[in-house]
Amino acid sequence: MEAQIKKDDKASMIDKVFELRGKATIFLCGGMAGCLAKTTVAPLDRVKILLQTHNHAHESHGIFGTLRHIWSVEGIAGFYRSNGAQMIRIFPYSAIQFLSFDVYNNSLSASLGEGNLTRLISGSMAGMTAVSLTYPLDVVRTRLAYQSAGCAEHPHSNYSGIADCLRHLRTQRALFAGLAPSLLGMAPYAGVSFCAFHWLQRQAVERWPGLFAVRDDDESPARLCTWARPLIGGLAGAAAQTVSYPLDCARRYMQVAGAPGRFSLAEVPAAGAAATLSQLYSRYGVAAGLYRGLSLNYVRVVPTAGVSFAAYETLRQAFGV
Asked: Where are the beta strands (DSSP E) in the chain?
């Protein structure tokens, strides 16, 4: 009897070790996928922030005008300004998000069942968890991306790096500026993206198996083929971004409030997310305010979400989790 108990305890310990190993692998896969995806679209990401926040150096520029200005003034390095801060932020952010989704989805499936509602709630909770734990790094990345080299009006207003930016943020008590709209925007974005990805994936495999489905062997279940993962992930990301974009604009404005240099709307920081959205709408309207830069965002969010989901699923498959 005692020998059996020891045997069961040993088996239970082994199961826990394998479970922890699986969670650690998911964490690693999520972080690597996020870094790969964000590096792919870093130039477009910087242009989006400059247009969203009406940076004075790019106020009259469109997408291509901003790209040309960055190239002529800052060179190729300008396209990757703040990418170091982005990588420091995105690895834990993406890792936490994918791991949290796995944990929440498994927990909620026991009570709600496996379905779209469970994935929607799990995705929303995972996104908010990741944002909350990594938010100060996102503020740093936004501040660094917002500043422009070669500015005649404020030649000495730029941050010297990540540490200098963090020091100023602490002084201004702005490490969590814009957190409220970030959480409000992330809830629908992450929820819709995770839910849409799994739903679209299932629909593609079930409706068009000859085109999208592959099997490892005759007994294994059908899964989405590798080449279709970026496509499905991109569509899911586009749908999610459309829902949450106005809150993303509000978040960026609140993050750059008080940054060195002059910028139009953020000269007088709004009291909160609702006030910022109201100012954006009253001053610029819907298209130029709440959805400014959305066309560029579609260009960047499709490959970002596509690469992220595809890399994550491929890495999980390679690691066998």
From this structure: 213-214, 223-224
Residue 295 tokens, joined: 């066309």
Q: CA–CA separation, 207 vs 314, rounded Å?
A: 22
Distance CA 153, CA 261 (A): 8
Q: Return the half-sphere exposure (C-beta side, CA atoms, 13 A cut-off) of residue 13.
A: 6
User: Where in the chain are the domains?
Assistant: 15-319
Q: Is the dihedral of CA 102, 20, 107, 219 positive or negative?
A: positive
Has this prediction a pTM greater than 0.90? Answer: no
* Partners of residue 214 on adjacent β-strands: 223
Residue 169 pLDDT class (50, 70, 90 cuts): confident
246-258: pLDDT as tens digits: 888 887 777 776 6
Planar angle of CA 104, 313, 193, nearest 5 degrees: 55
SS3 category, 55: strand
Look at phi and psi of residue 178 and say left if phi exceeds 0, alpha if psi is from -120 to 50, else beta: left
Candidate CATH numbers 2.60.260.20, 3.30.70.980, 3.30.750.24, 1.50.40.10; the one for domain 15-319? 1.50.40.10
SS3 156: coil
